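In response to the reviewer comment on reproducibility (Comment 2.3), we provide here a single inverse folding case reported in full, input and output, so that an independent group could reproduce the run without further information from us. The structure tokens appear first.
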């Protein structure tokens, strides 16, 4: 199965480091960052899970739940968490799915045979409260993920949903944003973007971030 942006994220029930999880029941009305790891007790993954644990307050500010996945069993996850917490000096406060039968990996197309026939690549899915897939990233096994970028994209998605804007390249919270081409009515523009805008071109209209 190949997921695309806008698809409904598949539901699943699977064991985890904190016991069985039904994905839809667990996620409820939160955003979710679902990210997979090739295996337990691997160095890159250990640093990534430590970073995610340290960013827990930032995720909570954004109504985001983190959910990791590896194809190793739950007992292995629990032992690995001890290593993560000791080496990365943090507390892992989110579950790690134990996808020993690779059912979830299959649903989310996390195994790429040319990389490995058994281990999941470094996939990232951002899923909104309506369970729509809003972001898909795939990293090679050797490259650790940039979790600052994951937070940046979540900020941009949530801002776009709330205020009908788009974000330019390298946008950060507080920067100017773009009025989408779908908004053309002058009265609607005045109402939605009361701070005004600068038109570099008719199709490129920059306005201050509405919620700042």
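Designed residues, in position order:
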């Amino acid at each position: 199965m190949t997921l695309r942006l806008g698809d409904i994220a598949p539901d699943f029930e699977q064991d985890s480091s904190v016991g069985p999880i039904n994905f839809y029941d667990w996620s409820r009305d939160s955003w979710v960052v679902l990210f997979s790891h090739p295996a337990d007790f691997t160095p890159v993954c250990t640093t990534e899970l430590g970073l995610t644990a340290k960013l827990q307050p930032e995720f909570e500010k954004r109504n985001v739940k983190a959910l990791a996945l590896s194809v190793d069993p739950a007992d292995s996850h629990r032992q690995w968490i001890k290593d993560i917490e000791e080496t990365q000096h943090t507390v892992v406060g989110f579950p790690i799915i134990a996808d020993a039968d690779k059912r979830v990996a299959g649903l989310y197309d996390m195994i790429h045979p040319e990389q490995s026939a058994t281990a999941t690549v470094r996939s990232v899915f951002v899923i909104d409260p309506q369970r729509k897939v809003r972001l898909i990233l795939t990293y090679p096994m050797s490259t650790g993920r940039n979790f600052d970028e994951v937070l940046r994209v979540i900020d941009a998605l949530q801002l776009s949903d709330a205020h009908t804007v788009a974000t330019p390249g390298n946008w950060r919270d507080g920067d100017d944003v773009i009025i989408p081409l779908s908004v053309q009515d002058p009265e609607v523009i005045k109402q939605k973007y009361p701070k005004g805008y600068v038109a570099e071109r008719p199709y490129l209209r920059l306005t201050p971030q509405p919620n700042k």
